[in-house]
Design a protein that fits this description.
Shape: elongated
Oligomer: single chain
Number of helices: 11
Largest sheet: none
Order of helices and strands: HHHHHHHHHHH
Strand content: under 5%
C-alpha cells in the first residue's frame, strides 16, 4: 500500500500573521480601506473570518499593523544601508533608493501607504508620533553630518531639510501610483537627490562664482 502523502506543515503564528497582513494589503488596495470588510481579508487569505480576530483586534488594527511593520523594515534597512557610508550624498541616495524601491516593487503596498492611510486623521496623528519620526531622524542625521563635513549649507535646519527630502520621495511615490505612464519608481531616486542637493540654480562657471572678481 503506498505511503500517505505528507501533510503540509501548518503555518506558525508569525507566518499566519504575515499572510493575513499580505491579504489585507491586497484587499485594501483593491477595494479601499473603508469599503473593505474583515471578511474580505479572510477570504483573500483563505481562512475563516474568525481567524483574523485571533491576530488582529479590528480592521483598523490591520491597517495600523501594515504601517508599523513597513516602517520598522524601512528604519532597519535605512540604518543598515547608511551605516558603512561616509559620503552624505551617497547616504541620501541609498535612503531614496530603498524608499522608492520598496514601494515600486509592491504596488498594492504603495496604494495602501500613499492613499488609504492618508484618509484618516486619527491614523495620521498616530503616525507622526511613532515610527515616522524615527525614520525622519535617520534622514536628519545624514543631513546634519553633511553639514559638519561642509557638504551641505550649515544655515539650513536639518529637521526642515529632512521633512522636505521625505516629502519629495513621498510625492514621487504618490505620482507613480496615479500616473498612467509605466516607469520605474526607483529609477527616480538619484535625480531626486541631485535636485535636492544641487537645487534649481543653473550651474555657474568659476568666473561667475561670487567673489570671483576679487580673486582675479
Amino acid at each position: 500500500m503506498p505511503a500517505a502523502a505528507p501533510r503540509p506543515a501548518k503555518l506558525d503564528r508569525t507566518d499566519r500573521r504575515d499572510a493575513l497582513l499580505r491579504a489585507a494589503i491586497d484587499t485594501f488596495a483593491a477595494r479601499g480601506f473603508f469599503n473593505a470588510q474583515v471578511a474580505d481579508v479572510a477570504r483573500a487569505a483563505g481562512v475563516a473570518a474568525g481567524t483574523v480576530y485571533l491576530y488582529f483586534r479590528s480592521k483598523d488594527d490591520l491597517l495600523i499593523s501594515i504601517f508599523e511593520r513597513t516602517m520598522k523594515e524601512a528604519i532597519a534597512d535605512g540604518r543598515q544601508s547608511v551605516g558603512d557610508l561616509t559620503d552624505p550624498v551617497r547616504r541620501l541616495q541609498e535612503i531614496a533608493r530603498l524608499h522608492l524601491g520598496r514601494l515600486g516593487r509592491d504596488r498594492a503596498l504603495a496604494v495602501v501607504f500613499q492613499v488609504e492611510l492618508r484618509q484618516s486623521t486619527k491614523f495620521m496623528e498616530r503616525f507622526s508620533s511613532t515610527q515616522l519620526r524615527e525614520y525622519l531622524g535617520i534622514i536628519r542625521s545624514v543631513i546634519a553630518d553633511g553639514q559638519e563635513q561642509g557638504v551641505f549649507r550649515p544655515t539650513i535646519s536639518p529637521t526642515l531639510a529632512a521633512k522636505l527630502f521625505f516629502g519629495a520621495l513621498d510625492e514621487m511615490a504618490t505620482n507613480w501610483i496615479l500616473s498612467r505612464r509605466k516607469y520605474s519608481l526607483v529609477a527616480e531616486a538619484d535625480a531626486i537627490v541631485d535636485l535636492f542637493v544641487g537645487g534649481l540654480g543653473r550651474e555657474r562657471s568659476a568666473s561667475h562664482a561670487p567673489g570671483s572678481a576679487a580673486r582675479r
